Amino acid sequence: MDHIYIYVPEHSIDKRPWNLPEIPSELVNSREFQKFVEQINNSYFDPVLVIKHNRLAAGPYVGFVLYKDKTSGKIHQINIYPKIFLGGLSSEDSWKIVLKIADLYYNLGLREYDIKTALATEGNSPFIDILLDIFSNRLLNELRFGIYGEFVSTEETSSSLRGQLLVEREILKLPTQKHKFDIRYKKFTVDNFLNRVFKYTLYLGLQHTNRRETKRTLSEAWDMLKEVSLTPISVDSIEKLTLNSLNLRFELPLKLAKIIISGLDYQKGLISPGFIIPMPDAFEFFVYKLLRAILGKDYRVRYHPQNREFVLETPRKFIENPPQPDIIIESSSGQPLVVVDAKYKTLYCPKCGEKQRYVKNSSDLYQIYSYTKLYNAHAGVLVYPMLKDYSQGSGYNQYNQWLCDISSISTCKNSIFHFFDKTKLGILGINLAHLIRDSIEVSSGNITKINPKIKEQLISYLNSLIN
What we know:
A hairpin with a 6-residue loop joins strand 4 (61-68) and strand 5 (75-81). This protein folds into three domains: 3-95 and 126-146 and 193-277, no CATH class; 150-189, no CATH class; 279-466, no CATH class. The protein has helices at residues 25-28, 31-41, 91-106, 112-118, 127-145, 167-170, 193-208, 212-224, 235-239, 251-264, 279-295, 308-312, 362-374, 433-437, 452-466, and strands spanning 3-9, 49-52, 55-58, 61-68, 75-81, 150-158, 164-165, 181-189, 272-278, 300-303, 327-330, 336-342, 379-392, 395-399, 416-418, 424-431, 440-443, 446-450. It starts with a strand and ends with a helix. By secondary structure, it is an alpha+beta fold. Helix 5 runs antiparallel to helix 7, helix 5 runs parallel beside helix 8 (212-224) and helix 7 packs antiparallel against helix 8 (212-224). The strands form five sheets. Strands 10, 11, 12, 13, 14, 15 and 16 form a seven-stranded mixed sheet that branches. InterPro entries: McrC (IPR019292). GO terms for molecular function: type IV site-specific deoxyribonuclease activity.
């Protein structure tokens, strides 16, 4: 199936129109395309896509959606790629960062080999091709060990009696029909629901992949499941599927199959709702997992906590949503020590007199100060993504590089500030290059290794905030 590819940089809504990709001419004044964008945006907190005249911008997301133009019949695949592509970082390293953060956020269970194999193709591969490559390779590896089979209950009318006789049907038969039996029995088959999920995913993948190698592995897996029926599968039906000790090895392919089916299958008038990673939420969860891995033995690290006073008190101080920080670091006894708020933002401001800022806007300061006071914590910390000291060929990429990185806090001058009442405010960056260099190793949905220097620096920094 032929596609027209549109590549849109993430977080590009504030960019000047001439720096954005053009929309194909048939979509510029298309009311149907505008409706499609509205439907996609209605599913998320911030706009995913924004049409600017004949250009397209994206919000803080990474992923893809597909739109089919009814007039021309062409399928437009809109790929939102990470903003860390900009400035010289290779597409392979950019996707490596995104996949490792997504592995934590969705608890996928990716291995380093899965990511390395999927990113082996040069150039800007569409995100769906990367997902399909990981899915097809892991599925194919497991199928080579053996196709999963199980006993499935089957009902039929037969001239021979076996299994269970369906008495409720037999008593209703006419004498001329009693030479055959209505029976129910179990038979061992590979044509079960789990394999049907995989076959339908392979079917969708073969229609949409653009990479030759991915098509080859999808086709090979398809051939191995030739005895399995091809039937449409809904995401809701996958939710009801539970794995057992015999098929647990298919856990990752099943998780990816759910993502691919939900992204490529026709739903609610859309040719594809796509698969969109909300990067602010994913980065926030990455910060939480990192802090818990470093501090979890001596402190309690809570994610999206809600103070019972704000939730249960009558009358309520907060009519709708009670205040909920991203992360709270507490003592072992439960005393709040530090409130942490993760901000997936660039701090660069070309129009400002001071371009290298430490806070995006005043609302971020109001928010962290309010959280700190409401939860009676010692300090608040704002954490931003950054990219520093990373060379790729002749290109050199930096992003929020003036922030104090978690691996070198002791050498920074600007990592702790004070509000007017002496409440401490920490501002830190997490150098995403740590995920490339494996200073922070992510595997199978967990942070498995952290450079001792990062641990030492962060613990020392926490002590300076609370003492």
